[in-house]
Design goal:
With about 280 residues, the chain is an alpha/beta fold. It has a domain at about 10-180 and about 240-255: NAD(P)-binding Rossmann-like Domain (Rossmann fold). It has eight helices and seven strands, in the order βαββαβααβαβααβα. It has a seven-stranded mixed β-sheet with strand order 3-2-1-4-5-7-6, with helices on both faces. Strand 1 (about 10-15), helix 1 (about 20-30) and strand 2 form a beta-alpha-beta unit. Helix 2 runs parallel beside helix 4 and helix 4 (about 95-115) packs parallel to helix 5 (about 155-170).
């Protein structure tokens, strides 16, 4: 809970998609969160108009200069939710990996660079279970599970999300105010390589991120602390960027337009088949 008068602003990349809009509405409806405005960064505005207390800025995360300009236009930010991605399914997934990598890896590098340059103290990255799950059973898995080798990923999307997640977790605790080159390339990424990320293990970086969240300095949706941005202070006043990654599964619900319409079309065409495997196969994420 934030104190009286501590009003906050957040930005959401991919903010006009299904998850981005739901996230914006949920954050703004939380009377204890103190968020007064959500800035939605996306290629196009939502088709049904902007929700109350939301502002739209047109930008591709793959455009380094555009991302930096959008952060400037947004004003002081207390947190950024990096939701934007490309290539998850359908034709996007079947296409070449160049654009997937440009958006998912290069775009994440651009967002990280902008957070550091504009002194945004908190970054929540929407990742995917695909960064760990590559078709083999995982028993009792947690954040300490090592990343699979790059050759184990079945598609460009999963590989790119894993690379971007490592980048985000490696940036946890980075001093604000630098920003890197913002080139949109991996070589120009702002995130420093930590021992945990470089060794192929998610344990150390995830532990650091969890510690930051527990201390009130970030974490998934954690809008606590004094905030920074606009070239000013940092998260909790310590001048550091705190990051975490949320590994989601398939996202669907009322108003979702990626999966459900496709499934309905397949059912109507008689092409839909459901495969049921071993009943012991469970998913708890």
């Amino acid at each position: 809970m934030v104190g009286e008068g501590a009003r906050r602003r957040v930005a959401i990349t991919g903010g006009c998609g299904f998850l981005g809009l739901r996230l914006a509405n949920t954050i703004l409806e939380d009377e204890h969160g103190g968020v007064e405005e959500a800035v939605l960064l996306d290629l196009a505005p939502p088709t049904r108009g902007l929700p109350r207390n939301c502002r739209f800025l047109a930008v591709s995360v793959a455009d380094a200069a555009g991302v930096d300009a959008a952060f400037t236009a947004a004003g002081r930010l207390d947190a950024v939710f990096h939701v934007a991605s490309y290539g998850m399914s359908g034709r996007e997934l079947r296409g070449g990996g160049e654009r997937i990598r440009a958006v998912n890896v290069g775009g994440t590098a651009n967002v990280l660079a902008a957070c550091l340059r504009h002194a945004v103290p908190r970054l929540v990255y929407v990742s995917t279970v695909n960064v760990i799950f590559v078709g083999r059973p995982i028993h009792g898995g947690d954040e300490s599970a090592p990343y699979p080798p790059p050759s184990a990923y079945k598609d460009h999307y999963s590989a790119s999300k894993a690379e971007a997640e490592r980048m985000v977790l490696a940036a946890n605790g980075t001093p604000l105010g630098g920003g890197g080159s913002g080139s949109g390339s991996v070589d120009g990424a702002a995130a420093p390589a930590t021992t945990a990320a470089a060794s192929g293990s998610s344990e150390g970086a995830a532990r650091n991120s969890s510690h930051a969240a527990a201390a009130g300095n970030g974490g998934a949706g954690g809008c606590s602390g004094s905030g920074g941005g606009g070239g000013g202070g940092g998260g909790g006043g310590d001048g550091l960027l705190y990051t975490c990654a949320v590994r989601s599964t398939g996202i669907w619900g009322a108003g979702e337009t990626r999966h459900q319409p496709r499934v309905i079309r397949m059912v109507r065409a008689g092409l839909f088949a459901a495969t049921f495997g071993d009943s012991a196969g469970l998913s708890d994420w």
